[in-house]
Amino acid sequence: MAGLAVPTWDPQTALLIGAILFEAIVLYVGYGGLERLVGPRLMELLVGGDSGVGQ
């Protein structure tokens, strides 16, 4: 039966995929935190005081 064979994994390939996923998670969390920290102040600076961001 074709298509039922389980593919074998190369350990280096699995390590590379794991490293890429870990990097993506770190960047997602890091940029999310940075946006929460700097975002409101930056928007107030760019848009102006009447934007309602700081309220």
UniProtKB/TrEMBL annotation:
Pfam families per UniProt: DUF7512
Transmembrane helix listed as a keyword: yes
TM stretches of this protein: 14-34
InterPro entries cross-referenced by the UniProt entry: DUF7512
Keywords: Membrane, Transmembrane, Transmembrane helix
Protein's name in the database: Uncharacterized protein
Organism: Halohasta litorea
